[in-house]
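Sample entry (109 residues):
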Amino acid sequence: MAIAETGVRVVRWSGGQHPTMSSITRLMQHEGLRPYMWVNMPNHRYGVRSHGYDKVLFVIDGTLEIMLPDSNQLIRLRAGDRVDIKAGVRHGTIVGTGGAKCVEAAARK
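Predicted structure, serialized as tokens:
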């Protein structure tokens, strides 16, 4: 699902197996990314912000909601889902009720 006018692209997990940290990290490294992992407790919220770089994020476990206030959209991500957020796009994040483990990286241009 591409949300072109917002600078956000979502790729839903279609693999037969549950995504693993090592498989997602290998995929990101193959794309030239330098991923790092973060974990948050249930219902943690990150306020609306933007970055000066393109962001690539995979959910390994749990769920996230990405809020896009400028387009009034909410994107729900599950294990294995990927979101690419262009530099400058305002977004906020809400961690799901079961917490979340994610891998993300700054994309180089």
